[in-house]
Amino acid sequence: MDTTGEKNISVLGDDPGLLKAAMISQQDEISQLTWLCDSMEKLLSLHNQEQIQEGFLLLVEEITNYRHCVLYLFGDAPHQYSIQACRGITAEEVQTKYQLEADILRWVIKENRWTVIPGEGNGNEDFWVSILPLVSAGKEIGFLLLNTCPDQRIFTQGNLRRLTYIASYVALALENGRLYQNIVNTKNYLKDIIENINEGILTLGIDGNISLLNRNVTALLGLASADIVGQSCQHCLSPELKRAFDIIIGQTFKQGYVMDYRLDHTPQEGQSIPLAINCSLLRDEKGVPNGVIITLRDLTTSLELQRFRELDAMKDEFISNVSHELRTPLGIITSYIEALLERVKPEDLATQRKFLSIANQACDRITGLVNNLLDLSQIESGRFFLDLKRVNLKDIAVSVVKSLELCQGEVEVQLALAQDLPYILADEEKIYQAILNIASNALKYSPVGRTVLIKVFKDNNMVKLMVHDEGVGIPEDELPYVFEKFYRSSSSAAGFQGSGLGLPIAKHIVEAHQGTIEVESTLGKGSIFTISLPFPDGNERGGSYGGE
Amino acid sequence: MDRTTCQEMLKIVLEVIQDIPTLPNVVYHLTRLMENPATSALQVSEVISRDQALTAKVLKLVNSAYYGFPRKINTVSQAVVILGYNNIRNLVFTTSVFDVVVKPNGSEPLFNKVKFWEHSLGCAASAKIITKKMGFKKTEETFIAGLLHDLGKIVLYHFLEGESAEVLMVAAERDLLLIEAEQEVLGINHTYAGKLLADKWNLPRDITAAISFHHNPLPAGDNFRLCSIIHLADILSRCLNIGSGGDNKIPLLNERSWEVLNLSWDKMKHILSEVETEMEKAQAFINLLEA
User: Fold this and answer.
1) Which of A119, A276, A280, B283 is close enough to A257 for a disulfide, judged by CB 3.0 to 4.6 Å?
2) Touching check for A10 and chain B: CB below 8 Å?
């Protein structure tokens, strides 16, 4: 070993100045580290990326007194980075001034240490460029490019240590901030989904307290406030809902779920919401139940849609029936008029008369049908008015029978009229129409040789008209539907023509007169339709008034 | 071995160590400088530059594949600002230690020198990978500690050949760990001999601890973690059959160390697969040292 070396050791070892300087620096280092720990604690508590950046760049400035610096952050793609913040320089200037060499950058990031990048001039430059990598738990977050004075007092081992520590904490803070933002975004996204979904969503904890609800729940259940998270479900619900929820939740805990529990809920007087309620268990990641999730669906729209679908189907059937009803008499008219024009001799007046009367009957059928359609259209559109006058029901019955004579053919119509019937206030034409509809039905369904009896009599404070036939009758289970629009009973489907309009129109007319219409029937024996109309108690009324 | 012979052997070892040359004074100067956080790269490079042979070696090493910096590093001060203070300090230490223990007097040690350094290198590479996988930054420190962990064996089997020949025989005959045979035959073992030399050379405290406690990290105090890493790395390099530490046995893993290192078997698999690549890089480093 060389002797000069020996000498150097003793000189250095005994140099009190050097030792003192080292001790002072160590003390400074400790106080600096304490200050650094506080700063780091503050940075780590931040979630906002810009605040973290700002705090970081200030700390670095304090240590290095940089001329300018550029913060780059890595994107999702490997080796892709972009400028996140600049101090003392603009982003455009950075592009022209610095061309970062990829291999050097990769090396520095891998080494994860503040590193001065050697320039071309072998250390004689008037500035130093250094890179401080930001790496958190092996994940490369970004790096800071620094332009400082080529001052030896900046790149000391103390500063190297400090900056390297700051960088790893900042990387952690930035990564935390990013994760925090992700969580916030995910939470907001889920909240948007929950708030905007078409259904009401309500979750309850195992203790029965509300843990989440969306605004649809408050609307559907008519809750006064949405601010009831944490409160007991039992305290917030009406008794009606409470009962339903008890059943649903009880069943859910027993069998794991409840599907489409139906409830007509009345959140307030006069408002009824048909609800379908689903409920299932909420389980934690270990599969242990920790509550229930309840979804509420408003069925108003879907029930309406279902009704519309049914109506649509009925209308289709109606159109097909009506077309048939119109085509048959039209066919008769066409063929008889053709025969008149081409085959019947002009002098054969008897045949001419017979053919014309058949065509006339067919015309009446068409007229009746069209009248019914018009009536229905008036009823449907609300333009149905009554022209009330004093009339005797007996007279109307007689004129109906007269008009039926033409087509009664093989069925006998008998009239039984009571004497001294009180007059009623009625729209004669409309009542005539109603009775005609019922009586022509009776004729239509009566086999040859049978009788249709029409009886008019007074019963208590009503004048009644009864149409009794000995026809095919109506099955008992179909009786409740005979007055529904477009409804055709199974017996009428068996070869009888009809539009399904006559009875509903009759019912509407009678009810518009404050009367009632009833039906009794025995299958195979016949039916009895009874119209009851009130008569005024000695007081006369006249003029017209709106029906509906 | 009785107490008197043990005392005599200790005396002999101390005398041998007394005769081992000190490290060049640049190392001591550097140590002093590094105690001061305000030390600048220029000061460090000035100290190194005083020793021309060292300067040449440092520049050769910093430009080696081991560090892998993509550009040529022309000056020592550049080396400091690029590789950092710790790397340079460790590099200077290792170079100086190698100069003393590898090159002296031409006499061959009792065991295969190449295999011995291969084992040390295997331990160093494993230690570096373990440190990295544990998420710690001090990979260079653990690398050097791994490289020098068996320094005591140089003392016993290189400078004290006469007394140690029996140790190797006993270890081979009775299939003992070298440390067990040393204790039985000499009364002292290589961890203690290594510590004595490290003290003489004023090696950094953590490296000295690794030398002393790599077979039993429990008493290592503040350096328990580092010593546990070297302990595991030593066992790994033996398991992987990298070189030879003079015996063929694998020591038992200290349970507490395993707990503290907290490595999953999954991570261990990664470590084992990465050691080989690291070995190649480390080999280049040693080749340069030996050149």
Assistant:
1) A280
2) no
Top residue of A10, A127, A156, A169 to mutate, by most chain B CBs within 10 Å, is: A156
- pLDDT band of residue A10 (cuts 50, 70, 90) is very low
Chain A to chain B Cβ contacts (< 8 Å): 96
- Whether this prediction's pTM lies above 0.80 is answered by no
Could you please report the per-residue DSSP string of A275-313? EEEEEEEEE-TTS-EEEEEEEEEE-HHHHHHHHHHHHHH
Tell me which residues of chain B, numbers 34 to 73, contact chain A at a CB-CB cutoff of 8 Å. Answer: 34-43, 68-71, 73
Complete domains list, chain B, with CATH: 22-103 (no CATH), 107-290 (1.10.3210.10)
* pLDDT (0 to 100) of residue A5: 40
Predicted confidence band at A543 (pLDDT cuts at 50, 70, 90)?
A: very low
Residues of chain A in contact with residue B78, where contact means CB-CB under 8 angstroms, are 116, 118, 122-123
Residue A260 CA to residue B284 CA, distance in Å, equals 75
B133 vs A contacts (CB less than 8 Å): none
Note whether A1 contacts B22, CB cutoff 8 Å: yes
Q: Do A156 and B37 touch (CB under 8 A)?
A: yes
Q: How far is A27 from chain B (nearest CA, A)?
A: 10
How close is the nearest chain B Cα to the Cα of A134, in Å? 13
The interface predicted TM-score of the complex, written ipTM, equals 0.82
Could you tell me the pLDDT band of residue A231, with boundaries at 50, 70 and 90?
confident
- List, for residues A121-133, the tens digit of each pLDDT value: 555 678 889 999 9
Residue A5 forms contact with B (CB below 8 Å): yes
Residues A152/B39, Cβ–Cβ less than 8 Å: no
Distance from CA of B219 to the nearest CA of A (A): 27
Amino acid at A45: S
Could you say which residues from 128 to 167 on chain B have a Cβ atom under 8 Å away from some Cβ of chain A?
135, 137
All domains in chain A, ordered by first residue: 23-182 (3.30.450.40), 198-298 (3.30.450.20), 312-546 (3.30.565.10)
